[in-house]
Amino acid sequence: MNLDLTPEDIAFRDEVRAFLKDKLTPDLAAAGRLATSVFIEPEYSLPWQRILHRKGWVAPHWPKEYGGTGWDEMQRYIFASECARAGAPGLAPMGLGMVGPCIIGYGTPEQKAYYLPRLLAGEDYWCQGYSEPGSGSDLASLQLKAESDGDDYILNGTKIWTTHAHHANKMFCLVRTDPKTKPQLGITFLLLDMKSPGIKVDPIITLAGEHELNQVFFDNVRVPKSGRLGEENDGWSVAKYLLEFERGGGSSAGLEAVLGRLKTHLFTHGADAGLIRRFGDVSMKLEAIKITEQRVLAELTGGQPPGPAASMLKVQRTELMQAIDTLGIEALGEHAGVHQPDAWLPGANVPVIGPDALVTGMARYLNNRAGSIYGGSNEVQRNIMAKAVLGL
Ligand SMILES: Cc1cc2nc3c(=O)[nH]c(=O)nc-3n(C[C@H](O)[C@H](O)[C@H](O)COP(=O)(O)OP(=O)(O)OC[C@H]3O[C@@H](n4cnc5c(N)ncnc54)[C@H](O)[C@@H]3O)c2cc1C
């Protein structure tokens, strides 16, 4: 693959840079730079989403007919890199990144007409109701019961680890509609309203002291059947399709930005040879991942899911992310404690924004331990690759 920028690519990059310079306010840029996990508070991600939407740049990976940009893989890569470089806040992955492509793939014309414009405009904020206590890696064992009652399903049970459920007004969710058949065959995929009577959201506070996760309880919650994506009892196909977008979506551009700041720190404050050697090692790994991403991005053109490459990227990115975070706190040494807002930005006078603990290298380190668990653990991804790629 030719990674050199053509004159057209350079012109495009300059256009993106000019746009970012013009539209990315200092507050939004600080929110992006100081983020300590992949999930940015909607207070910052939604205003940025609306700015991108007005420009027509909010969903580069969607097919053009549904609101995508029609960019090629290099343009999408340039856009993601420039946004990360400038510190633009990441957009919530559950909407545009996950359920959007799924609605495009499986939705009825009515569902597409209703949900897709709202997704693009950031009118709905989505959460993902897959995991349950006891059903994570073994997702097909999920138990949240959905009984048919006229035009509705009635839901009883619980979901757990539901990121940003306390912010979301919509959930996409897997429910058990047939308890008697093989586990994978009795699951249905539903789109539901979080304001429905009978839904209760309880917080789970992480090791970093942050509130991202929740447990969601369903007590006789009525969900109209018009919210079903795909056929009844065929939700497993929809669920797997969505997971490929979850694992394969995103990019390492954010890691590049973090690594750039670490480089500044290492070379400004002095570091021993061991740390510099490890910095070289993670930098090379990042280059390898960037090239793989561009190949996978090329396959994603037209809104197609990435297949088993999604598992490979998920493992590579999250392991690299954790290696960079570990190196970061080792380099910071005694300064790596919590409440060190400028620790990752030596010399920068950045205001502390967002919830208290959101601005530290240590919080990043702690939060990103979850990277090898969410979206399906890395052990599970290795099982998928062993089956799908190696035929084991
Ligand atoms: C920060 C965070 C955010 C999350 N957000 C969401 C969300 O928004 N929505 C949602 O639905 N879920 C979410 N999850 C849940 C996530 O998808 C699950 O935690 C994950 O799938 C693992 O399931 P589990 O926690 O039940 O662990 P388990 O499945 O109990 O796994 C425990 C350990 O056993 C290993 N293991 C299990 N099975 C195998 C196997 N077959 N082969 C080898 N090793 C195996 C796992 O790798 C892991 O190390 C989130 C999780 C985290 C940590």
Search tags:
46% helix; alpha+beta; binds flavin-adenine dinucleotide; 8 strands; single chain; four-stranded mixed sheet
Describe this structure in words.
46% of the residues lie in helices and 14% in strands. By secondary structure, the chain is α+β, with helices and mostly antiparallel strands. A 4-stranded mixed β-sheet has the order 1-4-5-8. A hairpin with a 2-residue loop joins β2 and β3. α4 (73-86) crosses α8 and α4 (73-86) packs across α9. The longest helix is centred in the C-terminal third of the chain and has 28 residues, at 273-300. It starts with 6 loop residues before the first helix and ends with a helix. The site of flavin-adenine dinucleotide (FAD) has 19 residues, from β1 and α12.
Number of helices: 12
How far is it from the N-terminal to the C-terminal residue, by CA?
29 Å
Helix content: 40-55%
The count of strands amounts to 8
Name the poorly predicted regions.
340-359
Order of helices and strands: HHHHHHEEEEEEEEHHHHHH
